[in-house]
Design brief:
Blueprint lengths: L3 E5 L6 E5 L7 E7 L6 E8 L5 E7 L5
Antiparallel strand pairs: 1-2, 3-4, 4-5
């Protein structure tokens, strides 16, 4: 099991590494500010049955 994964910030394009919380379930979503540009990204994490992790971010402003 991986303890970290990365997503691309939708604002600045940087590759951002975040920890994986295995206890939070197989489908997770939360808002986190980019550590480079400080803009809010909605982080989506999907954990498959085999422990494979898919992660992606989307701009929070796209949700309004």
């Amino acid at each position: 099991m991986e303890n970290e994964a990365s997503y691309i910030c939708k604002y600045c394009g940087e590759d951002i590494v975040v920890p994986i919380d295995w206890s939070a379930g197989s489908s997770q979503q939360y808002v986190e500010d980019c550590s480079v540009c400080c803009n809010p990204n909605i982080i989506h994490i999907q954990i498959g049955d085999a422990g494979d992790v898919q992660i992606w971010g989307e701009a929070e402003q796209d949700q309004h």
